[in-house]
Amino acid sequence: MKYKVKDLSLAEIGRKQIEWAEMHMPTLLEIRKRFEAEKPLKGINIAAVLHVTKETAALVRTLKIGGAEVALAASNPLSTQDDVAASLVNDGISVFAWKGETEEEYYSNIESIVKLNNPQIVMDDGGDLHAYIHEKASELKIFGGTEETTTGVIRLKAMEEQGVLRYPVIAVNNAYTKYLFDNRYGTGQSAIDGILRATNILVAGKIAVVAGYGWVGRGIANRLRGLGARVIVTEVNPIRALEAVMDGFEVMPISEASKIGDIFITATGNINVIRKEHILNMKDGAILANAGHFNVEIDVKGLKEISIGKRNIRPYVDEYILPNGKRIYLLADGRLVNLAAAEGHPSEVMDMSFANQALAVEYIVKNKDKLSKKVYNMPEELDYLVAQIKLKTMGILIDELTEEQREYMKQWKYGT
């Protein structure tokens, strides 16, 4: 089989969703025009483990138009948009993904795209594809790969430090035009969108606790404040904690915040940030949501162990009854709330993230014999190119340095 999706009859609905996304992704479409003319990826097999959304569809369609053969699996069991998956099959993309995969199906789908595609380039969101190839497909000759998320970059850096990384990887996540916008504005909006779709609660007046003040956490915290929430930040990094304080947020340990919060959102990339002892502290009706890549930040297993009852209240909302009679509401089983309960990031911000992905793949193809087995940041000139194209599509002009200014920046003698 060259695909495995939920229902091919959804393809026409998916086509309209993809058209809607592409209408709002002009940067990627500018790159697509050049790819169509130049075919820089001709003869290249790509295996991609990404969230199968309408925005991802715009990316893989661009790669295919550029000459590549693409096989796609989901990077989260709950993030696939089934209509989009069906439409991509009609476009000749080998898709193995559907919403609601079991853990076994999730890893089986990753295995399927690798065995089907024999990739030369791999694109990942979280690091599971990279890990699979290193552990179970070491015979493949990989030119290089890309990584979309902070979580995945952390895993790849660990592989590099341990000397086991087998091919070069471009950390697309580290591009300025990715993390300053995708992580901050994209997750900031989409995580709250997921919470609102799941619960339909009023945010104004609530005490919202954001665990982690990286770019994702600060995006979420600022948008919660904009909706009228009273926001508390919890952190382990003293510099980020200090920044949160000076940004006007209250900062305290999770052990204290757990006693007063109404909504909790984890955004750390680490494990068991909210644990059993914190959950037992919480108010009746507290809501738990996760915006980190893996479902490990909230101790879901611990929540189940201490609960005496559970029932599903609404789609993606499970009610847990604690021994003290309090009710705790877990969203999307602790998985990425923005993709499980909503549609993920808006197309406008994924426009830049996936423009970076397309250019990174092209860069690997052109430089495959020059790159070492290490994790690279996105080349600065490509990062700037994405910003330049984005501004152009928005109709925004900026200044350029004069020759005098360029010369001034090269010298050291001029003083006051």
Automatic annotation (TrEMBL):
Q: Which InterPro entries match?
A: Adenosylhomocyst_ase-like_sf, Adenosylhomocysteinase-like, Ado_hCys_hydrolase_NAD-bd, NAD(P)-bd_dom_sf, S-Ado-L-homoCys_hydrolase_CS
**Cofactor note, please?**
Binds 1 NAD(+) per subunit.
Molecular function as annotated in GO: adenosylhomocysteinase activity
* EC number, UniProt record: 3.13.2.1
The catalytic activity, as recorded, is: S-adenosyl-L-homocysteine + H2O = L-homocysteine + adenosine
Gene Ontology biological-process annotations:
L-homocysteine biosynthetic process; one-carbon metabolic process; S-adenosylmethionine cycle
Described purpose of this protein according to its UniProt entry = May play a key role in the regulation of the intracellular concentration of adenosylhomocysteine.
Question: What name appears for this protein in its UniProt entry?
Answer: Adenosylhomocysteinase
Q: What is the gene called? A: ahcY
